[in-house]
Write the structure tokens for this entry.
Amino acid sequence: MENNAGVTTEVSLASMTWQGVTLTPSAAKQVASLTKAGQCFYLSVRTSGCTGYAYDIKMIEQPKDDDLTFESHGVTIFVALKAMPFVDGTEIDYVRQGLNQVFIYTNPNVKNVCGCGESFGV
């Protein structure tokens, strides 16, 4: 990155200040029920679909050293550092609609979503 004086500066994801990722009470309850003893709720993104990225949720045994940790409604969330520019400020909700159950992401960074809802772009 170059500033007005023509000096190149480097910005590190690890040195940034993040808003974080939060859960609604409904999502926190669901995450707590999904995580077995010794597992962690992990959020990242992967390339997918026609608009670029998809949310990637996993249950992992151990977070990586550069993963970020957020606490929401008594539940710990681990987020991949490389995913933070895409998910920072996101609130995750859990909704039941008839027989369907789904996590809903309210992400302020999203600029477009594909028609089927599979992917998003920032």
Remarks:
- The first strand starts at residue 22 and ends at 23.
- The first helix runs from residue 25 to 34.
- The chain has one domain: 19-114.
- The mean pLDDT is 86.
